[in-house]
């Protein structure tokens, strides 16, 4: 199914019924501030990674309501509200954490300012994008940390919605993955694409005498060159490695293992490759890998990893748990007081404190325009993204590169316990300075 030319209907009905009521009673034009944040991190997580900001900014000009949308809206909205939406353009301001920035409980990841009418209708769009992409990037960053410098390939397209797969590939790339199997992510975002063959290609080379794995490997090498990666576990791994070297020679690029006891097999395969003279042939492993199984393979002779299902499902945390709350009306702070769902009122910004060594120690969330005095090194986190409805930050390839660099720097800045995979508290505390 093609994506709609205008994305206005990518929202929940109650956003528009609230709008209709506000237009009717005259409150729609009150100046408001909404804040997108996570009350808490997913269970056991020590940090999150902001992702999806660029996609949200790209979607903003498309958040409009065409004739088809307005015909649908006329079924439950009054004519005045439909006219308002037909002419809708977001003309407010948005500030937020740069894409790739780490976040913690209470971090004001996104701040949307404008009339109630224009801010309220963005709620679902902002949450759906940032909740998904941040969940993927946060899980992917844990895998990057566990891989300890070895490259990872995102290959989870077949485990999620076809459109979500593109966003997931982008988010994983931001978090530090080297490439993705998804070609649309390459076309749209410039994410490097990698992939060679599946078991089906090996099994295709079967005749009346049975499987001919060597013929399959020779065909692949002939088509793709000796730098290709041959999948050696379709039948017997030891025979597969021997056939791979026979087909590609000592300069074969890589072999891939996709099943079994990967650590044990990797050691056996490394020894066999070395004995056959293929000392430069790399070993790629895949097969339901997550951050824990990647960490368990750290001491094994594995050169790179392919991760799929766990990446695109957030490795057990498929949403970042972010919320979008009204925090200010006409300059007056407002806050939700529901049990376990409290919010902090007022327009806020944030600083991150660190030691002179660069290790972060604390996040300080303060009233906007009133940063606290601190004797420690600090860095401003809140940056302008949109002014008067116009995007004022880079959203192209350079922004994606900057986001990758920001994630890498963020992971380096965490205290050592913040990189643990075991359950624990957030890596640093978030301190709220009241208005």
How would you characterize this protein structure?
- This protein is α/β, with parallel strands linked by helices and 435 residues long.
- The chain folds into 2 domains: 7-137 and 317-432, nicotinate phosphoribosyltransferase (Alpha-Beta Barrel); 196-302, Alpha-Beta Barrel (TIM Barrel), CATH 3.20.20.70.
- The chain has helices at 13-25, 53-59, 67-73, 79-86, 116-120, 123-147, 162-175, 183-189, 199-204, 213-224, 237-248, 262-275, 291-296, 309-312, 397-413, and strands at residues 31-38, 48-49, 93-97, 102-103, 110-115, 152-154, 179-180, 206-207, 210-211, 229-231, 254-257, 282-286, 304-307, 322-329, 332-333, 348-354, 360-367, 378-380, 382-387, 390-391, 430-432.
- The strands form 5 sheets. The chain has a 7-stranded antiparallel β-sheet with strand order 15-14-1-5-3-19-20. A 6-stranded parallel β-sheet has the order 7-6-13-12-11-10.
- α6 crosses α7 and α7 crosses α8 (183-189).
- The longest helix has 25 residues, at 123-147.
- It is globular and about 80 Å long.
- InterPro entries: Aldolase_TIM, NAPRTase_N, Nic_PRibTrfase-Fam, Nic_PRibTrfase_pncB, Nicotinate_pribotase-like_C.
- Residues 337-359 are annotated as: Disordered.
- Pathway: Cofactor biosynthesis; NAD(+) biosynthesis; nicotinate D-ribonucleotide from nicotinate: step 1/1.
Summarize the structure.
The chain has 15 helices and 21 strands. It is of the alpha/beta class and 435 residues long.
